Amino acid sequence: MPRLGHYRFSETDVAKTFSNLGMWWDHLTTGIDATAAHIHGSLLSQSLADVLGADVLGADVLGADGLQADVLGADDLGQRLTDLGRAAAARFAGNESSAEAVAALGLLWHAMRDAMESLRRAGVVSTSGQGTVARINVSGGGVPKSAVDRVEVSLGGIVGDRQRSRQHHGRPWQALCLWSVEVIDAFARDGHPIAPGAAGENLTLSGIDWSTVRPGVLLRVGTVLAEASAWAIPCRHNAQWFTDGDFNRMSHVRGPVARVYATVIETGSINTGDAVRIVALV
């Protein structure tokens, strides 16, 4: 099984991380001034193109005076990363455990982590805020998830929790799924038959301004440190929680209403009622 440091990736995880690169970058940078992250995306674009032997399609991101953060516009960079991620997935299909594939995955992983840290240092994403763990949710696969009082959290997520399918879930950058009890309650007040755990989030949080919880934010939850990585894309399994079947009501494109995936940075334990704090740096 491929590894990056202590993080374990299945071959599917490797393939899906490559193919989702454009989406991941879009989630990280949309709706904010992402200038601080741009250099990391530009460097990743050049590095992946070098690894894949691909044409860089324009000016190099390495200028005579060093790295040039403005070589590609934001839209061009997003599309470049989308294309390169898909090219990498195709290039390494069936060979995701190869040293070359893992090396390329490492470039992606570290560039994305560096981009998130740059946004925090620039003050572009929130570095403060607090709330509590209203509910912890686990299941043997599928939704809804059931409440438990306490869990241990590894780099792979909540110990004992399972997904129905790993096709779209379960990467190290999707180790935890977080949601807001206030968002859920607002849906319920509108008449939708939804409740904490129904949509599959692991941790239902309360008292925290959900508009501040977005990719790039660091959260201390109990003794666990987690880095919000990407919004969770809703699927048809969540249609049952909406009277009209419109599960996209919980999409990030509709506003600050989406579940958020997170990478576990420091393992530990979480109890119902534990404090949640947005923090500045690892």
CATH topology (level 3) name of the largest domain? M1 Pyruvate Kinase, Domain 3
Computed over alpha carbons, the radius of gyration is: 19 Å
Biggest β-sheet, characterized? 7 strands, mixed, barrel
Q: What would you give as the CATH superfamily of the largest domain?
A: PK beta-barrel domain-like
Structural class: alpha+beta
Give the N-to-C terminal Cα separation. 27 Å
* CATH class category name of the largest domain: Mainly Beta
* Total domain units: 2
Q: How many helical stretches?
A: 6
Helix content: 25-40%
- The spatial strand order of the largest sheet comes to 5-10-9-13-12-11-15
Which segments are poorly predicted (pLDDT under 50) over 5 or more consecutive residues? Answer: 56-70
Mean pLDDT: 92
- Order of helix and strand elements from N to C terminus: EEHHHEEHHEEEEEHEEEEEE
Number of beta strands: 15
Shape: globular
Q: Determine the strand fraction and express it as a percent band.
A: 15-25%
The CATH architecture of the largest domain can be named as Beta Barrel
Domain MOSC: 145-279
GO molecular function, one term: molybdenum ion binding
Q: What's the short story on this structure?
A:
InterPro entries: Benzoxazolinone_Detox_Enz (IPR052353), MoCF_Sase_C (IPR005302), Pyrv_Knase-like_insert_dom_sf (IPR011037). By secondary structure, this protein is α+β, with helices and mostly antiparallel strands.
